TrEMBL record, chain A:
Belongs to the binding-protein-dependent transport system permease family. The keyword Transmembrane applies. It comes from Nonomuraea soli. InterPro entries: BP-dependent_transpt_permease, MetI-like, MetI-like_sf, OppC_N. Keywords: Cell membrane, Membrane, Transmembrane, Transmembrane helix, Transport. GO terms for cellular component: plasma membrane. It comes from the Bacteria. It is found in: Cell membrane. This is Peptide/nickel transport system permease protein. It is a multi-pass membrane protein. The chain crosses the membrane at residues 33-55, 103-131, 138-156, 162-181, 266-289.
From TrEMBL, chain B:
One of its GO terms (cellular component) is periplasmic space. This is Peptide/nickel transport system substrate-binding protein. Keywords: Signal, Transport. Belongs to the bacterial solute-binding protein 5 family. GO terms for biological process: peptide transport. PROSITE patterns: PROKAR_LIPOPROTEIN. It comes from the Bacteria.
């Protein structure tokens, strides 16, 4: 058997093709939690992507004619299902437009974190040795600081702005992904197929990049889904603390929550609506992520 | 199992956000927790009167502070030569019974007899002159504008200016004649001098107490540290209340002074507590933990009234304005400045976001002050006119940087972000491109504004004393980096007005100055706001004051 043919046989033996995922999908479709999660995510994505068409009003510029004085916040009516905010803007439209902002921050910061984490994890897990030790100590240090606190620190350092928020949340998630990938790769490196490839004389780089790495990605993808949930919450948290983009007319759920808190007594809907939106979006990703983890975990296989 | 754990973590996270919102966190600075201690409950007027400040005092020596919360406490313990009538801006006798001047340069004050400081020493001509000489001879850190702001504002520099940028002092000297007369000499006539003396910063302190406790100040970076004990542990004045204790981070306790020369305080114990978070102050009043607080949010007025609390209105002397920095193009173009003025719907903003009774401003000073001019050029809301002016200006697609502060509410700006959003939308509707700029109020925002780095910015002014000079004089009497313009006509007019001692001529000069200013349009004034004081159900005799000089010795319980 030539080296190439042997490697092909190993690839088949790894079973990282459709098999695992197809089975996982089958299991997911039987799990009500996963279905609820998927529906919530689909709804969130749909609303975020088509926000401009879905929002009944533009709701960016204040419409002060609607406000009769401080403390007057018009409640729900037939034209405005959730009522108006304290600037006379349609609340429902702002919630819908806010979904886009949350999705943007969530996805971009997730990508930052994931790419950074994968690079570090791949190098640490692949190279091993002193580099691995160095990176992992750095990761330990980063993980020692509570996530939100870390993000606040970075965002404050970078100054106000949407990009700063995305970088901050991304950086916080880098060590999570790095550690996860590195651990998986260490385990996979000792797996039979990797040993077989090595004994056949396949180059180390090829073993790691072509076989070990793709086989270690599954938990990273699961973690990614879960991280999207925390990223949305963290983005809202930072906005709540006043660390979001400088332009306050762009709707953002966390900021809407922060700004409405002083009207809680007279207009609770201003607080409940964005709060609920954050919870539902985060819940969707958490439900799906957890179900995915279960479905892919061999321990849960029946 | 693990899945459940994770789920609940997310749910808790979301619920926490909601809970934080409900508790009204996210304010500025530290929020002290109300409810830790209760004032001693004795009943009747023996029960202490507790007032919530929005920030802890910096020091209790008027000469060293300029912030309202320090001055509010100082006001209860100290008196100056002149004061203001409670509830008005009228200057009335305090420790001086009368004053006169023939030329506006030399002022003779007749002092009240039989006045004692809290430490038992006499207040007399010698002590009064000692106070003026103390301020005039400030050295080192005492000359820092962050320390002796009001002396510098009113009298210029010191006996020996240690920084070349300080102006020469307009104070020349103080001479005691017998025990009950002093004459203060100025370098040039000043008509605003007497009103300025009503500032709590010019309160008479006991010379013996200063000598005993010390009044040293050191600069730690940009912030003064009061190492002398007078300002922090042993302030001594002549006022209706005397100092008892200051527990840092918690409270300042005062007690009625038995030897007070005027009408004695009705409530024996007076306690000031610092609660920085606005909703927490309201809750403290609702729970009966405090008896009153200032700056009730306009949106809370009806809620508090509905619950039976007293909410008193104060017609505050202030102005909220949008400043234009003419050093930055295109603000050097008068047509652009006018276009901004026409583009902004001030009426809609004031009606929607300011309490009833607040007025749209047409000039940089409130109508209560003499020198206000009904006939200034007004710029009513007119988008088309704004668009036309932009076209005439020759500036294609004008872009302006609009600044707003975060982490602050001011009486003239209860919700800066709301104002900003309204202005931005209005400007965009008229064809301006608006770049958003924001920074924390202190120090970044004020630094940017004061150093001429902000192009178009939201700011305002609260009166220190009731005089036109305190408004237009402060803003426009000389080159000011905030506005970045030189206009000799305006500078000269204001200089002439400040020195004019004839009241009628002075009024005319200020009216002319206001007209010139509003034609020149160095900024756009938009509001004179009302503010509110919240009081407990049984509080009587509280008199709101346009300069926030409320006198607590008049307060009693029903």
């Amino acid at each position: 058997m030539s080296l190439g043919a042997a490697e092909a046989a190993i690839t088949v033996a790894e079973d990282h093709g459709g098999g695992v995922w197809r089975e996982a999908f089958k299991r997911l479709s039987r799990n009500p939690a996963a279905i609820i999660g998927a529906v919530l995510i689909a709804l969130f994505l749909f609303v975020a992507i088509f926000a401009d068409w879905l929002a009944p009003y533009t709701a960016l510029a204040p419409d002060l004619k609607q406000i009769k004085g401080p403390g007057h916040i018009p409640g729900p009516t037939a034209e405005h299902w959730l009522g108006l905010d304290d600037q006379g803007r349609d609340l429902l439209s702002r919630i819908i437009l806010g979904a886009r902002q949350s999705l943007l921050v969530g996805v971009v910061s997730l990508l930052f974190g994931m790419i950074g984490g994968i690079i570090l994890g791949l190098l640490a897990g692949g190279l091993g040795g002193w580099f691995d030790t160095g990176v992992m100590r750095l990761v330990d240090m980063m993980l020692a600081v509570p996530g939100l606190l870390f993000a606040i620190g970075i965002a404050a350092m970078l100054g106000e702005g949407l990009l700063a928020v995305m970088i901050a949340i991304g950086v916080v998630n880098v060590p999570v992904f790095a550690r996860l990938l590195r651990g998986q790769m260490l385990a996979q490196r000792e797996a039979d197929y990797a040993m077989a490839a090595k004994s056949l004389g396949v180059k180390r780089r090829r073993v790691i990049l072509g076989h070990v790495f793709p086989n270690s990605l599954t938990p990273v993808i699961v973690q990614g889904t879960l991280t999207l949930a925390t990223a949305i919450i963290e983005a809202a948290g930072l906005a709540f603390l006043g660390l979001s983009g400088a332009d306050p007319s762009i709707p953002e759920w966390g900021r809407m929550l922060a700004e409405s808190q002083r009207h809680l007594a007279i207009a609770p809907q201003l607080v409940i609506a964005p709060g609920l939106a954050i919870v539902l979006a985060a819940l969707g990703f958490t439900l799906l992520g957890e179900s995915l983890r279960e479905a892919l975990d061999p321990k849960y296989r029946r | 199992m693990e899945a459940r754990k994770r789920l609940s973590a997310v749910a808790v996270g979301g619920a926490m956000l909601l809970a934080v919102a409900a508790c009204g966190g996210g304010g500025t600075g530290t929020s002290s927790t109300p409810g830790a201690t209760q004032p001693p409950a004795a009943g009747g007027s023996d029960k202490a009167f507790v007032w919530a400040l929005s920030a802890e005092p910096k020091a209790l020596d008027g000469a060293y502070v300029s912030d309202g919360e320090s001055l509010r406490v100082i006001r209860q313990m100290f008196e100056g030569l002149v004061g203001t009538k409670p509830g008005s801006t009228e200057v009335v006798p305090a420790l001086a019974t009368k004053w006169e001047s023939t030329d506006g340069t030399n002022w003779t004050f007749t002092l009240k007899q039989g006045v004692k400081f809290h430490d038992g020493t006499d207040f007399n001509a010698e002590a009064a002159c000692w106070n003026f000489e103390r301020w005039y001879n400030f050295k080192g850190a005492q000359q820092n504008p962050a320390v002796s702001y009001y002396w510098y504002t009113v009298f210029g520099g010191y006996a020996k200016n240690e920084d070349a940028s300080l102006a020469p002092s307009s104070y020349k000297g103080c001479k005691a004649e017998g025990t009950d007369k002093i004459t203060i000499s100025l370098a040039a006539p000043s008509a605003s001098f007497i009103a300025a003396l009503s500032l709590p910063s010019f309160s008479m302190v006991s010379p013996a107490a200063i000598q005993k406790s010390g009044d040293a100040v050191e600069m730690k970076g940009d912030a003064p540290e009061f190492t002398g004990k007078f300002a922090t542990e042993a302030p001594v004045g002549t006022g209706p209340y005397k100092f008892v204790s200051w527990q840092r981070g918690d409270r300042v306790t005062l007690q009625a002074f038995d030897g007070y020369h005027g009408e004695k305080a009705k409530i024996k114990d007076l306690i000031f507590r610092a609660i920085s978070d606005a909703p927490a102050r309201r809750q403290a009043l609702e729970s009966g933990e405090i008896d009153g607080f200032d700056q009730v949010e306009p949106a809370d007025v009806d809620t508090l009234k509905g619950a039976g609390f007293q909410v008193q209105e104060r017609s505050a002397l202030n102005v909220g304005y949008i400043g234009f920095n003419q050093k930055m193009a295109p603000l050097d173009n008068p047509k652009i400045r006018q276009a901004i003025a026409y583009a902004i719907n001030r009426e809609a903003l004031v009606q929607a976001k300011y309490p009833a009774g607040s007025r749209v401003a047409t000039q940089f000073m409130p109508p209560e002050l003499t020198g206000y001019n009904e006939g200034v050029t007004t710029y009513g809301y007119d988008v088309n006119k704004a668009k036309q002016l932009i076209a005439e200006s020759g500036v294609a697609n004008p872009t302006i940087e609009l600044w707003y502060p975060t982490g602050v509410t001011r009486p003239y700006m209860p919700d800066p972000k709301a104002n900003f959003e309204a202005f931005k939308a209005d400007l965009e509707a008229a064809g301006f491109k608006v770049t958003v700029k924001s920074a924390r109020w202190t120090p970044e925002y004020l630094d940017a504004v004061d150093n001429g780095k902000a192009m178009v910015y939201m700011i305002g002014w609260n009166a220190d004393f009731a005089d036109a000079d305190n408004f237009v004089g402060t803003f426009f009497q000389q080159f000011n980096k905030r506005f970045g313009f030189e206009n000799k006509e305006i500078f000269d007019k204001l200089n002439a007005a400040e020195q004019e001692t004839d009241a009628a001529k002075r009024t005319t000069l200020y009216q002319e100055a206001n007209k010139l200013i509003m034609d020149f349009l160095p900024g756009l004034p938009y509001v004179h706001n009302k503010s509110f004081v919240g009081l407990g159900k049984d509080v009587q005799g509280f008199l709101t004051d346009p300069l926030s000089n409320e006198n607590f010795s008049l307060v009693s319980r029903g």
